Structure formats: structure tokens, C-alpha cells
């Protein structure tokens, strides 16, 4: 069995380098330790772990997946205070889990990854960071899909005379009390922070290019007796997790059929009609596409907040700014002291792709040209021994932990077999990549994501759905449960690889 490798680099070398200290990166670190692999480091750009739950601190920030499912299956937390946990509680769970599994000695804080290059000469990755270079046989890129905020290109934005910030970079030093505030965007972040700030501001102008379907959020506190039940009878929490998983899997399965989603849409329409009595406002907030085409949102206070007298919905995108005057594409205008950008994140074109270089010296972004493509959402062409968490066409309408644990099972099996069979490098076969992506795109054609009548972040700038896994998560977990070496191109030290 191969446990060590020849160090042909002057840089500190490891068997595995993990990039990113969110749930995906932490999960990878835990799995490595449990496999008996200690020769690894986790590179984190910030001063603490947390990923998206460290970055987003806006008022009302919480998960839209119940906590029982938004956690590692191997590390249940019986102490969640609510069905849908808030940001601080989720970040604390992540950090507590890192301590519990003794991951902290492997973490290198303040190490932002600047680039990673694969070398066929050394069969290693060279990873350059803000604090030096390292090399590794394997890299696990766990930088997350909701990492880099999108800043809109708006004419005159630099002339704005007030304060402006993105919701994921919340300015807690700015008191919004009595201010005129403009919110750009009505997505998953905005529907959480708008109800929180609405009572404090003088005037709230919400720029909405496209309305979202919003479902009621079945949230409530979890009292101490329930937490004690989860603690002393963990099977009860496991039963709750299984139930929530089944509900989300049903929703995910429904996405295959726009007709089925139109029936489900009745609940969202009822929610809108129940909360919004003004016909004009209701028309502004009614989407003209099938539910599921865009991300499905949940809230109990979004619609009531929008119905307040100090709130104005501008059903148009922001086009231009003159001083403190904001002009919409439909010609309407409003004045603001503060602009909050609820404009989301780079999903289809993750920024890490600009920093990962294949054997030909090309970065992923240049190769993809706006349409990411890989194999099983986990490996990409010409990047041997490189594993990408939340890669192309792996997203589902369920908990991120379903994806994380499925991918990690696949990645750990790949590393285990490489060690067992003395394999220097593993990379996906280009022919299999092409065949796999052809099947994916065929399966996506008639889904609500592709044919629901909207434009969303699921669709890349070339009009291709390079984001969504088109099948069930049952199929994802089954297909990623075993790493089949016969599907990959291998560089062996010696001998033949026995089929595992």
C-alpha cells in the first residue's frame, strides 16, 4: 500500500490539500482522518472556519433547510434551537464539529489560495497561497458555490452619495434607523433581511426584476424537552431527518415535471393571496413562470413586510444612479441614503475556476468558457487527482449535506484505491465526460429548470444548464458510492490495477 510519495518539490508536501473551511472542506478533513490519513492540511483564507455561514451575517440570516437535514449524518446536533437554525448557530455547529473531530491542527488560517497548478513531471499539485507554496498529491477544492458575491454593473453607481454594500458583506456599523434604503434584488437573502430592517427604516424601495414564488416556512422553536429527546433517543432525530429528506426528495423529483410543479404552485399562490390583499401589489409579486424554475423560497414575514406603508416595490431592475437618485429600467425613480445589494453569488462561474490550472497551463474558467463541465460533478478534464466539491451539474433541491456526503464517499474511495494500487494519478476519460454530459443535458431538457419559463442562476451565460443534477439524490448517492477505476485514465507505478 502506498502511504507516502516522493517529494520532488522544494515546497512542503502533503498527501492531500483541502481548499476551504466550510462544511464541504471540514467534511473532507473528517473523512481523511477517519480513513487514517493524517498527512493533509486545510487552507482557509479567513481567521476562522465557517464558509458561507461566516461570510453572511445579515439580519435574519438562517437556513432554508431544516436543521435535522442541514448537518452531517455522522454528527447529529440534538441542541438546535429551531427547526430552521439561524446563522450563528450553524457556524457554531461547524466550529464545534471541527474541534470534536480534532481537525484544527490541520487548519492553516490566513492562507488564501492564489493558484493551483498540476505538473505531469512531479505528479503533484503546487498550491500558491498568500503565505507561501505547498504541494500535494491530491487536492480537494471545497470553496463553495455561494462564495463570491455578484456586484451589478450599473451606470453611475460610483456617483452614489450614500453607503452601499452587499448583503454578504453586511455593514453592521451603519445604523439604518430613519434612513431611506434601497434593496436591489429579491432572492433568498433579501427575503430574510428585508423583514428585519423594514420596521426601522424611513422608506424601503425594493427593486425587483423578477418575483419569486414564496412558500410558508414551517418554522418553530424546538423546546428543551424536544432537544433532550433528540439527545437521549437519537433515533427520534434520525426519524425526523429521514422524514425531511423524503419531503425534499419528493420536491426534487417533482422538478422533473413542470406539470407536477404547477399543482404544487397552488400552495405558493395561496400564500401570496392570503398575505397580500392589494390587487396592484399582488400583480407585481406574482411570477409568470412555473415554481421551481428559480430557487423556491420560504418565508412567513416577506409578504407582510412588503405590504407595509413605508415599502415600495419597483417591479424593474436598477438601470442608473445619479447622486442619491436611483432610476429603474422602466423609468421610475426613488431616492436613497443606503443601497443594499441582494444580488446573489457567482454560481455557474465559480471564481476558484480562475485559479486552478490544468496540465496544459490553462485555468478552468478559460477551458469552460462560461459553461462548466465535468464528470459526476466531481472531476474535470486534464486535472488529475483534483476533486471539485459542488462541481458542474451536481446541485439538487435538497440539503447541501446530501451532495457533500455523496461526493466525499466518491472522493475517499478514489484516494483509497489510489493508495491501495500504487496509482500516481487519476483523471476522467474525455470520452466518458462527453457521454456523461450528453446524458445530463438530455435529462434536463424537459425539467422545470430548463422549461419552466424563467431565467435563473441555474442557466449559464451560454444558455446551458451547467448547475443542476437532473436525477434523484438516490441515484446520485448510488452512482457516487463507488469509484470505478475503469472509468478513469490511470498512471500507475507498476503492475495492473485489479478491479475493486
TrEMBL record:
SUPFAM superfamilies: FAD/NAD(P)-binding domain (SSF51905). This is NAD(P)/FAD-dependent oxidoreductase. It comes from Alkanindiges illinoisensis. Gene3D superfamilies: FAD/NAD(P)-binding domain (3.50.50.60). InterPro entries: FAD-bind_Monooxygenase_sf, FAD/NAD-bd_sf. It holds the Pfam family Pyr_redox_3.
Amino acid at each position: 500500500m502506498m502511504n507516502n510519495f516522493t517529494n520532488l518539490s522544494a515546497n512542503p508536501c502533503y498527501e492531500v490539500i483541502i481548499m476551504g473551511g466550510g462544511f464541504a472542506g471540514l467534511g473532507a478533513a473528517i473523512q481523511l482522518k477517519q480513513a487514517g490519513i493524517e498527512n493533509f492540511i486545510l487552507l482557509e483564507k479567513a481567521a476562522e472556519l465557517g464558509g458561507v455561514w461566516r461570510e453572511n451575517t445579515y439580519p435574519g440570516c438562517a437556513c432554508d433547510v431544516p436543521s435535522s437535514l442541514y448537518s452531517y449524518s455522522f454528527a447529529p446536533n440534538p441542541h438546535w434551537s429551531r427547526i430552521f437554525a439561524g446563522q450563528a448557530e450553524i457556524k457554531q455547529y461547524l466550529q464545534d464539529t471541527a474541534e470534536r473531530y480534532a481537525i484544527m491542527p490541520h487548519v492553516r488560517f490566513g492562507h488564501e489560495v492564489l493558484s493551483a497548478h498540476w505538473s505531469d513531471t512531479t505528479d503533484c499539485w503546487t498550491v500558491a497561497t498568500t503565505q507561501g507554496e505547498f504541494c500535494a498529491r491530491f487536492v480537494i477544492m471545497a470553496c463553495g458555490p455561494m462564495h463570491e458575491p455578484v456586484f451589478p454593473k450599473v451606470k453611475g453607481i460610483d456617483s452614489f452619495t450614500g453607503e452601499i454594500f452587499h448583503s454578504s458583506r453586511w455593514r453592521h456599523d451603519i445604523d439604518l434607523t430613519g434612513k431611506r434604503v434601497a434593496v436591489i434584488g429579491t432572492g433568498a437573502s433579501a427575503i430574510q433581511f428585508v423583514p428585519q430592517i423594514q420596521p426601522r427604516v424611513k422608506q424601503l424601495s425594493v427593486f425587483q426584476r423578477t418575483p419569486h414564488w414564496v412558500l410558508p416556512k414551517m418554522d418553530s422553536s424546538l423546546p428543551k424537552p424536544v432537544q433532550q429527546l433528540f439527545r437521549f433517543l437519537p433515533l427520534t432525530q434520525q426519524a425526523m431527518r429521514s422524514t425531511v429528506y423524503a419531503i425534499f426528495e419528493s420536491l426534487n423529483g417533482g422538478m422533473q415535471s413542470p406539470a407536477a410543479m404547477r399543482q404544487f404552485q397552488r400552495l405558493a399562490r395561496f400564500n401570496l393571496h392570503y398575505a397580500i390583499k392589494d390587487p396592484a401589489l399582488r400583480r407585481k409579486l406574482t411570477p409568470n413562470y412555473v415554481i421551481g424554475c428559480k430557487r423556491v423560497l420560504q418565508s412567513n414575514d416577506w409578504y407582510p413586510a412588503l405590504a407595509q406603508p413605508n415599502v415600495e416595490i419597483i417591479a424593474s431592475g436598477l438601470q442608473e444612479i445619479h447622486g442619491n437618485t436611483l432610476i429603474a429600467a422602466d423609468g421610475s425613480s426613488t431616492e436613497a441614503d443606503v443601497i443594499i445589494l441582494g444580488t446573489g453569488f457567482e454560481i455557474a462561474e465559480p471564481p476558484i475556476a480562475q485559479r486552478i490550472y490544468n496540465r496544459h497551463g490553462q485555468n478552468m474558467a478559460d477551458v469552460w468558457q462560461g459553461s462548466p463541465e465535468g464528470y459526476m460533478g466531481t472531476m474535470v478534464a486534464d486535472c488529475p487527482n483534483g476533486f471539485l466539491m459542488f462541481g458542474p451539474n451536481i446541485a439538487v433541491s435538497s440539503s447541501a449535506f446530501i451532495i457533500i456526503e455523496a461526493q466525499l464517499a466518491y472522493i475517499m474511495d478514489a484516494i483509497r484505491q489510489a493508495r491501495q494500487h500504487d496509482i500516481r494519478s487519476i483523471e476522467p476519460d474525455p470520452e466518458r465526460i462527453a457521454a456523461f454530459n450528453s446524458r445530463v443535458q438530455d435529462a434536463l431538457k424537459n425539467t422545470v429548470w430548463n422549461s419552466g419559463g424563467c431565467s435563473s442562476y441555474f442557466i449559464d451565460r451560454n444558455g446551458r444548464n451547467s448547475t443542476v443534477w437532473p436525477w434523484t439524490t438516490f441515484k446520485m448517492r448510488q452512482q457516487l458510492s463507488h469509484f470505478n477505476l475503469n472509468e478513469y485514465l490511470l498512471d500507475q507505478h507498476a503492475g495492473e490495477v485489479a478491479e475493486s
